[in-house]
Amino acid sequence: MKKLLEVNDLSVSFDTYGGEVQAVRGVSFELNEKETLAIVGESGSGKSVTAQSLMQLIPMPPGKFVGGSIMFEGEDLTGKSEKQMQRIRGKEISMIFQDPMTSLNPTMTIGNQIGEGLIKHQNLSKKEAHNRAIELLELVGIPNPEARVKQYPHQFSGGMRQRAMIAIALACNPKVLIADEPTTALDVTIQAQIMDLMRDLQDKTNTAIILITHDLGVVANAASRVVVMYGGKIVETGKVDEIFYNPKHPYTWGLLGSMPKIENKDEELQSIPGSPPDLSDPPKGCPFVSRCPYAMEVCKNHMPEYTDVSNTQKTACWLTDERAPKVEIPKSAVVGGAKIHG
Amino acid sequence: MAKYLVKRIGFIIVSLFLIITITFFLMQAAPGGPFASERALPPAIEEQMNEAYGLNDPLHVQYFDYLLSAITFDFGPSFKYAGQEVTDIIKRSFPYSLILGLEAIFIALSIGVLLGVIAALKHNRFGDYTAMVIAVLGISVPSFIMATILQYIFSIQLSVLPVARFESFAHSILPAVALATTPLAFIARLMRSSMLEVLNSDYIKTAKSKGLSQRVVTYKHGIRNAILPVISYLGPLVVSILTGSFVIEKIFGIPGLGSEFVESVTNRDYTIIMGTTVFFSLLLLFSILIVDLIYGLVDPRIKVARSGGEK
Fold first, then answer.
1. Which pTM value belongs to this model?
2. How far are the Cα atoms of A307, B23, B85, B258, B269 from residue B265, in angstroms, in the given order?
């Protein structure tokens, strides 16, 4: 498998009146060709900022790159000018946003919104772009595309708008598609359809997908690898099976525990008590220390190094240290049923 | 579309009827009459004049006479200026007000929108502050002070533009600028806040993520959405510019309809009051209709033709 994107020690901050907010603090991961990488974590964990900084969509100022690199096909994107980034956005890397109700321009036809990128990146004429837009709408499963292409976003339902967003994002056959919570704003039946569609299109176009979500159900179905983020840092990463069946980090346990399970439908839904750390004054040690039921003295002042659990799984937790007490995975975090991938 | 237009024109007729009725009774309620002046007329002559102009008829007869004259748009002769028909006065003076008003609207719109966009793009930086200082000045300085300042600088000190009267394009510049100042400032502020909101919206991010240049994102995706509140302000703007030009017309000695309108009220010149009121009302009601139609063109979510139909 070829590496497509490699993020090294990326740090992104925002200057605010309340001081510097360190939204992303030294994140490293890689994306291989044709795979789906899920980034999970709760609100404020830095997953969206990470994704948007890949495309330099963070407004600067107040945002700024503090350090690290984003290597895409051998070139560092952090050093690119705005003009150079414009040739990458939409053509090499494109993005789907969370809320399809607000992500489309209300005063422009769907066809023109799809066609814009094509005219810019592939030098198509207006007519060609229009025809290609019809093909793309058909590809994403919108019935009667010839009529739909001339319509405005308010004439589309939520699910159809997200399909149109996917058509916009895939218009120029990008190598990487970043999907920032693509199903969060949709209702459950539509969610499944959209995820099916994305998987289907991935098979056809061989696009690598970075899927940002807090829905572990979506992750289990769609992703091959998972990055778990908390407090601007990656706390655990691994293949999807490893994260679901052999998680090592208490935060991952908490996430898995707070997932509703079909076996115990009478039980109350679990949650992780407490709230995420204030990133304008991030904790010196592990960001999860204040909410972790297994927190030790060392966790308060020292950030744990990454420990290799396997070739593919890494975790940053002091519990993996040999001096730490042995802790079993809590029962709530044990995922039942058959393994997801074979 | 046709059905919508018919409906709207129906509303215009109803509004006009109400305006005419209210104006008529207000006019009657005000003390004095067209022939009251410092040098009192002999009672016999005043009686004869009242008789000749139909002012001795019972109120309801006068009212129906007015309604009839409004429908036929023939308001008869002026009470004050002997031998002049109301329609002639409107025909003579309206072109001045129209040219002045159109120029002022053009200035206010183009520069106001431009200032607002610049301010939004340079949010919290020098350009923003400059544009907003201009806007605050424009809103707080009354148009008659603006007019005299302009006259002082450009006519008296620099001698580049004529100080008053209305004979050529050069004559129209100063009054148009003075008239445009306040709405210009208002539009700039309106445009700035709506542009800021639009620039922070998700679809602007989508547009950027397609790799479009900053210029295309701003013009194609930003301004068209941000200009909507400005368009809805255009209706009241036309109102205020056309009726508010009275002061400016006075200062610059322009024989426009605004001054005609105000003078007719102090003169109790009933026919001119009626004529100008009906004329202005028609103008304003139609300009609001046109603004609504434009709104439907710019924003596809508003389908004027289909009232309460498909969502």
1. 0.78
2. 90, 11, 17, 11, 6
